[in-house]
Amino acid sequence: MKKRETANPYVTVLLSCLVIFVYGMLSSLLGTIIPGLAAALHLTNSQIGYVALAQGLGLAATSVVAGALMDKQGKKIGVILGLGATLAGLILLGSSKGVIAVAAAMFVLGCGGSLVIVAANAIVSDVGDEKRAAALNFLNVFSGLGGLATPFIAANLLGSNSSRIVVFGIATTVLVLCLALLVPLSKRPVASEERASDQRNLFSNPALYLLSAVTLLYTACEFGIWNWLPKFLIASGMSTAVALNVLSLGFACGLLCGRIVATSVLWRISPSIVVIVSSLLMAGTTYMILQREPVWLTSVLVFLAGAAMAPVFPTTIAIVARLFKEQSATAIGFAITCGFSGLILSSPLIGWLSGSDPLGVGRGLLIVPVLSMIIFAILILSRKLFSQGTRENLPNLDVS
User: What is the pTM of this model?
Assistant: First the structure.
C-alpha cells in the first residue's frame, strides 16, 4: 500500500510566505515600472489608468472563483495556477510593445495575483489553532516585504530599468514555482453546502455591504498610491531612483511596520476604533503628501500614510469574519472580491482626473484623501451595526 505523502507544516508555511512575497511584489510592480514604461511607449495618464484597470479586472474576476476552485481541487492547484499566471503575465509584459499588450499582461498578472493571495492565506489557515495567529502574522510581514522589494531593488540595483525589473520578477516567480511543485500540500475535505435560507440571511444583512464598501474604497486608496505616487513624485522634481525609494522605504515600510504594531494594538483596542482612527489618519497624511513638501518631509509623510493604511484591510476582514461566523468563508470571499474591485475604481479615475499635464497626477490623487474620509463616515455612521465585531477571536488576515 502506497504511503500517503504528507506536508511538513514548517515547509508549507515557508512556501505560503514566499507565495505571498510574490503577491507583494506584484502590488508595487505597476507603480515601479510606470515611469520607464510610459516614456518608452509614450503612454498618457489615461492610458496608464486603463492598464491599471485591466489588472483590477483580473484580480476581481478571479477572486470570485478562486476559493471554490481550491475547495474542490486543493490548494496546490491554486498555488501552481497563480504562480503560472504570474509568470505568463510577466513574460507577456516584458515583450509588450503597445498599450493593449501591456493591459493584457496586467490582466493576466491580476488573475495570478488573486489566486496567489487566496492560496497563501488558505495554506496558513490549516495550521493548528494554537499556531494560526502567529503564522498569519508572519505571513503578513512577507506581503509587506514583497511590496518593499520591487521598488527598492529597481531603484538601487536595476537602474530603474523596466525590462530588468520584469526579468527580476520572472526569476523570483520561477524559483517559488519550482518550490511549490516540490512541496506536497494536503487536500482539505470539501465542506457541505450551506442552506439557501442561510445564504439569503447573509446577503440581506446590510453590515456585509457596508464592510465590503470599506474594503473597496480602501483598496482604491492603497493601489492609487502604489500605481501613481512615483509618477507624482517624479513630476514634482524627484529623480526616478529617489521616487522609487520613497515608495519602498516609505510607503511599503510604513505598511509593514503598521501591521506589526496593529497586531499588538488589537489585543487592547476595539477593531472598529482602530479602523476609524486609521481612516482619519489616512485622509490627513495622503492630503499632506500632495502639497509638494521637501523630499525628507514627503518621505516621512509617505511612511506615515503607509502605517495609517496598514490595519484597515485586515482588520475590516477580521470584523467580517467575527460578524458572520457561521458563513465566514462566503462573507470574507465577497468582501475580498469587493476589495479587488477598488483597483478598478481608482486608477482609471486618477488617470482621467490627471489629464495630459504631468503635474495633474497630484489633482488625480486627491481622490485618496476623499475616499479615506468616506470610509471614516461609513464607519462612524455604522458603528452600532458592527458592535458585534469585538476583539475576541479575530482572525489576523491580510489581502493587500
Answer: 0.73
In the numeric block, the cell 453590515 is attached to 207
Q: Which is nearest to 333 in space by CA: 125, 60, 124, 112?
A: 60
SS3 state of residue 390:
coil
DSSP letter at 385 equals G
For the cut 50, the answer to whether the pLDDT of residue 313 exceeds it is yes
Cell output for 97? 510593445
Topology of the domain covering 9-185+198-386: Growth Hormone; Chain: A; (1.20.1250)
Average of per-residue pLDDT values in the chain: 80
Give one DSSP letter per residue of 251-310, joined into a string.
IIHHHHHHHHHHHHHTTTS-HHHHHHHHHHHHHHHHHHHTT---HHHHHHHHHHHHHHHT
How many residues in total does the chain contain?
Answer: 400
Distance CA 112, CA 91 (A): 13
- Residues 369-383, mean pLDDT to the nearest whole number: 93
Inform me whether the pLDDT recorded for 165 exceeds 80: yes
Give the model confidence (pLDDT) of 240-257 as tens digits. 889 988 988 899 889 888
| Residues 123, 75 contacting (CB under 8 angstroms) | yes
Q: How far apart are CA 359 and CA 45, in angstroms?
A: 11
Nearest to 115 by CA among 67, 72, 184: 67
Give residue 35's identity as a one-letter amino acid code. P
C-alpha span between 334 and 211 (Å, rounded): 10
CA–CA distance, 316 with 397 (Å, rounded to integer): 9
Return the biggest CA–CA distance within the chain.
70
Helix (H, G, I), strand (E, B) or coil at 382: coil
| Residue boundaries of the structural domains of the chain | 9-185+198-386
> ∠ CA 332-334-338 to the nearest 5 degrees?
115
Question: Which of 118-122, 194-198, 236-240, 355-359 is most confident?
Answer: 236-240
Cα angle at 122 between 249 and 111, to 5 degrees? 65
Q: Return the CA Rg of the chain.
A: 20
User: Does pLDDT of 396 surpass 60?
Assistant: no
Provide the H-helix boundaries in 355-389: 360-364, 367-381
- Give the whole-angstrom CA distance, residue 55 versus residue 224: 13
Q: Report pLDDT for 190.
A: 46
The DSSP H or E segment spanning 344 is helix 328-354
